[in-house]
UniProtKB/TrEMBL annotation:
Catalytic activity: a ribonucleoside 5'-diphosphate + ATP = a ribonucleoside 5'-triphosphate + ADP; a 2'-deoxyribonucleoside 5'-diphosphate + ATP = a 2'-deoxyribonucleoside 5'-triphosphate + ADP
Classification via InterPro entries: NDK-like_dom, NDK-like_dom_sf, Nucleoside_diP_kinase, Nucleoside_diP_kinase_AS
Record function comment: Major role in the synthesis of nucleoside triphosphates other than ATP. The ATP gamma phosphate is transferred to the NDP beta phosphate via a ping-pong mechanism, using a phosphorylated active-site intermediate.
Class of the enzyme per the UniProt entry, highest EC level: transferase
Required cofactor(s): Mg(2+)
Lineage: Bacteria, Thermotogati, Deinococcota, Deinococci, Deinococcales
Name of this chain's protein: Nucleoside diphosphate kinase
Species this chain originates from: Deinococcus irradiatisoli
Protein location: Cytoplasm
EC numbers for this chain: 2.7.4.6
Source species, domain of life: Bacteria
Gene Ontology annotations of biological process type: CTP biosynthetic process; GTP biosynthetic process; UTP biosynthetic process
One GO molecular-function entry: nucleoside diphosphate kinase activity
Pfam family, one: NDK
Gene (name only): ndk
Gene3D superfamilies: Nucleoside diphosphate kinase-like domain
Length: 138
């Protein structure tokens, strides 16, 4: 059993994709162990995307991710980290596998609907950044 951090980004929430994406997660068989809609502070956004802070798109990314409500999701399941990354598809929707969320619902790399942790270390870090222990099911 593995836990990962998933997020429906502001573009996904604004476009009313929340029910579609939650339905895919639940139908896949993952257990939702934490769920909340929230607006991310700039501090949290900068910490979440710290690995990109030298990249030219960092400012734009922080503006985007704090620009409207997101849905923060803690998922649990077998191989949930890679499994959720697979369901999302590649970062650039043009390269995303057919049937993946980014292939089905996004056209640009900047606004690509969802986030998912890319390793056990980032999953632990990101779950800790977005959820307190009491907000997660045992
Ligand atoms: P990931 O979300 O698939 O893990 P990362 O490379 O970690 O992809 O990038 C994090 C996020 O930063 C992307 O999902 C996207 O929103 C944004 N991003 C990445 N590359 C670019 C870019 O070249 N232009 C604008 N935004 C980008």
């Amino acid at each position: 059993m593995e836990r990962t951090f998933a997020m429906i980004k502001p573009d996904g929430v604004r476009r009313n994709l929340t029910p579609e994406i939650l339905a895919r997660i639940v139908r896949k068989g993952y257990r939702i162990v934490g769920l909340k809609q929230m607006v991310i502070s700039r501090e949290t956004a900068q910490a979440h995307y710290a690995e990109h802070k030298e990249r030219p798109f960092f400012g734009e990314l922080v503006d985007f991710i704090t620009g409207g409500p997101v849905v923060a999701i803690a998922l649990e399941g077998e191989n949930a980290i890679l499994g959720w990354r697979g369901m999302m598809g590649a970062t650039n929707p043009a390269n995303a596998a057919p049937g993946s969320i980014r292939a089905d619902f996004a056209t640009t790399t900047g606004e690509n609907v969802t986030h998912g942790s890319d390793s056990p270390e980032s999953a632990e870090r990101e779950l800790g950044l977005f959820f307190s222990e009491g907000e997660l099911l045992k």
